[in-house]
Design brief:
mainly alpha; Proton glutamate symport protein; 0% strand; globular; cell membrane; Proton/sodium-glutamate symport protein; symport; transmembrane
Length: 440
């Protein structure tokens, strides 16, 4: 008798997503219980993000052990992030000016949402604040608030110092290795609940928004998704080719992660799995544990593309003609604010509020698109996840340490995974379950 094939996590998530949509649409009056279930899943993921970020960065930096090498890698990484996010912004602005999705929309037909919290946040964050606030005054407080910028900054310095003390620091390094592996194992445990969390989150989203709110803004949503698809296939495809990999091979390996990110609207929900999968894909741990957390803060490609599209869209809704100079100003402001707002809750709205205010456009326009922001944010999150994953490959290739022999589907287990028996090889063939490991 042949053994029945085990259903993979990706398949279970697709089923959960489909059932959630159906439940939310047909039983919207009985969807109140879905939100707490979905929130519990998201909270369970977020509780492990900070210890994984801190421990893996310390391990990765201590492995490099040279501040000059860390600085060199950091410089290359930030330059790459700036180039890609700028391309995303330019693409968004260009598409908005060509397709004009905001022209002809009746403003009275769109549901308006209070955005005062976002606009007040925007006025208190500048690019200067970003660099000042990079340095924590109390690392325990930063850890408690999950301020990833400050956590990353301290972890990098801690890792460099740990490498500098030599043999006496080995027990500390072993401690963080134990913490990281334990968190990876805890991630596997939590991920068994992913299909149920996805069901609850999708069901609640559909029950709340339905299709009515989408219709007046359907053109914006449709154009955004088509533009993001173009960006992934063409821009990321070209970058992947230059890096010597097949983009679609990487995407197949990340299928479960993309589904989770899409349905939960949170890139944090797949952070631990991205770390481990990209290491299995051929990126050394010292690279992936630095590039991915940094990318979660500075390389939100999907969010950058959306912001480039949304600003002209709001101007078009209000009948405001944007000159070429005005458009250049918007691009320049977005290039700054999209970095300066990193790590702020509701980052896309905060960036948009800041950009609209600084370019003289009506900030109130945000309230007009807030109703469909969740629908658009799910797609943005997927692009963000793909962007940070690909960035780790690019950096490994630039450093000359990328193992192309591992860039296959399905992923091969790492040697330590086999030895420690933490990997599930049967399920690995379907969705690369890990022993396992920042956006808006």
């Amino acid at each position: 008798m042949t053994e029945r094939k085990k259903m993979g996590l990706a398949t279970k998530i697709i089923i959960g997503l489909a059932l959630g949509i159906l439940y939310g649409y047909f039983f919207r009056n009985y969807s109140g219980w879905l939100k707490p279930v979905g929130d519990m899943f998201i909270r369970s993921i977020k509780m492990i993000v900070v210890p994984i970020v801190f421990s893996t960065i310390v391990i990765g930096i201590a492995g490099v052990g040279d501040l000059k090498k860390v600085g060199k890698l950091g410089g290359k990484t930030l330059i790459y992030f700036e180039i890609i996010t700028t391309i995303a912004i330019l693409l968004g602005v260009t598409v908005a000016n060509v397709t004009k999705p905001g022209v002809g929309i009746n403003l009275s037909s769109i549901t308006k949402v209070d955005i005062s919290a976002y606009t007040s946040t925007a006025t208190h964050h500048t690019t200067t604040d970003l660099f000042v606030n990079l340095i924590p005054t109390n690392i325990v407080d930063s850890l408690a608030r999950a301020d990833l910028l400050q956590v990353i900054f301290f972890a990098v310095l801690f890792g460099v110092a740990l490498a500098g003390v030599g043999e006496i620091g080995k027990p500390v390094l072993h401690f963080f290795q134990g913490v990281a592996e334990t968190m990876f194992k805890l991630t596997n445990i939590i991920m068994t609940a992913a299909p149920y969390g996805v069901f609850a989150l999708m069901g609640f989203t559909v029950s709340q928004f339905g299709l009515a709110v989408l219709l007046p803004l359907g053109k914006l949503v449709g154009i955004l998704y088509l533009t993001m698809a173009f960006f992934v296939v063409v821009v990321f495809g070209l970058v992947a080719k230059l890096a010597g990999i097949n983009l679609f091979t990487m995407l197949r390996n990340l299928s479960a992660e993309m589904l989770i990110a899409f349905s939960t609207d949170s890139s944090e929900s797949v952070f631990p799995r991205i770390l481990k999968k990209m290491e299995q894909f051929g990126v050394p741990k010292s690279i992936v544990t630095f590039v991915v957390p940094t990318g979660y803060t500075f390389n939100l490609d999907g969010s950058a593309l959306y912001q480039g599209l949304a600003v002209p869209f709001i101007a078009q809704m209000y009948g405001i003609h944007l000159t070429f100079l005005h458009t250049l100003t918007i691009i320049a402001v977005l290039m700054i604010t999209s970095k300066g707002m990193a790590g702020v809750p509701g980052v896309s709205f905060v960036v948009l509020a800041s950009t609209l205010a600084s370019t003289g456009l009506p900030v109130e326009g945000l309230a007009l698109i807030a109703g469909v922001d969740r629908i658009m944010d799910m797609g943005r999150t997927v692009v963000n996840v793909i962007g940070v994953s690909l960035a780790s490959v690019v950096m490994a290739r630039l450093e000359g340490v990328f193992d192309r022999s591992r860039a296959t589907y399905p992923l091969q287990p790492l040697p330590e995974d086999v030895e420690s028996n933490l990997g599930d090889l049967d399920q690995l063939k379907e969705n690369s379950v890990m022993t396992e490991s920042f956006a808006k």
